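forwarding from the other thread:

> can someone predict this with zinc ion?

sure thing
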Amino acid sequence: MTSPARSSFRKALVGLTALSILVSSGPARAAEGETLLRDTEIEAILRKDAEPIMKAAGIDPKAVQILLIGSKDLNAFAGPGTMGVFTGLIMESKTPNELQGVIGHEVGHLAAGHSARSGEMSAAGMRPFLLTMGLSLLAALAGSGEAAAALAGSSTYFGTLGALGYSREQEGRADMAGAALLQSAGISGRGLRDFFQNFVFLEAFQNAKDYAYFRSHPISQARISSLDARVQKSPYYDKVDTPEALAEHEIMKAKLRGFMTPTIAIVKCSDKVQDYPTRYACAIAQYQMKEPDKAIRLIDALLVEQPDNPYLWELKGQILFEFARAAEAEAPQRRSVALMPDAPLLRINLGQTLIALSDRKKIDEGIVELRKALTQEQDNVVAWRLLAQAYDTIGEDGLARLATAEYSSYLGDSRQALVFAMRAREMLTKDSPEWRRATDIVLTSKPSKEDLQDLAREGSIRRGSLN
Ligand SMILES: [Zn+2]
């Protein structure tokens, strides 16, 4: 599944978590209000749901970036190296099996070689857009004009993908391919049939226009009947979701409810509520409704029961940081990283807190955390931006400019990348690895003829590359 499209797509990717707030307060709202969300917990659950299906299709799951898109639309797409799942689809899926069914159908389009759509995706993948990262970082991003512009760009991007349609024949083939993939993966196709069945009469309804997915994936009763016959043939037809998978699905939905519709989630909250997902949603909703103390109280109660849950520590740290209690955020964030050392987003949260503490030792440690995260996600623009801030604070001007050049480059702003990489080169030690990296950024950021001549004169590039 590797392709040139994949590498350019990944390059455009950078970190992000529940970004709904940024969208609702920024100019991006006018452009549909869709954005990419990053959340370590939800990404892990989606990955568990999708991996067996990808493997059945001969796709290396590690080569696929799973994107969580914040949108009410019921939508999903799969392209080379990328799979997108809309939050609307997650909220409407009653079970992991239904969600896996839709994923199976989308991967079925890929497996059936419906390449028009993936071709469109490759073209769209060339466009820079912003994935941001934790709610804790909203403050930093909200004031950033280029971030808002990039978000607006991403709305158009996903709008384009959502609108890419297939023929009815292609839909039928994707159903069959999807059912076959589910069967090879040992998963029942019942959820796929049920999910589509729920929407079969949709075209008759007024609100059909709200469901772009079914405009691009037309459903007919005949199609459902063929699908039904096919999935019933599978030896796994009666296989049901494990209790663990069902519980994770509920946690994922609860988290999204708390972040995206807190005023609705809060209605279910009272001291009598016992189940974990609802209490989790209540804590998040309180946080979203700017009641940090109430939120922390609820999280502390959950932590008594699950002291080793990294996501609860992450959430606690995030709330404390966001409500200007960075010193208190440090311990919970350290705990989340200790429990899940391979999760770059948790490390970035910790790094952000450490560099906000006016203590040189902590700032240095924060820089180490951000750099570690960037070895796993080198295109995470939020981490680059924080790193630039940290270097600036400690007077490492050359490194600060280099980090800003990286940030701009991954954001797709080659003009800014060029300016900052040129400045970085003037400040960094000649021939050091950082200086060489700055030179690379200059060369890939549409330098002018004069820039190239300067580089050639100092011997950084050979004259031949001027042509
Ligand atoms: Zn389809």
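Residues 23 and 33 are 6 Å apart (CA to CA). thats all i got for now
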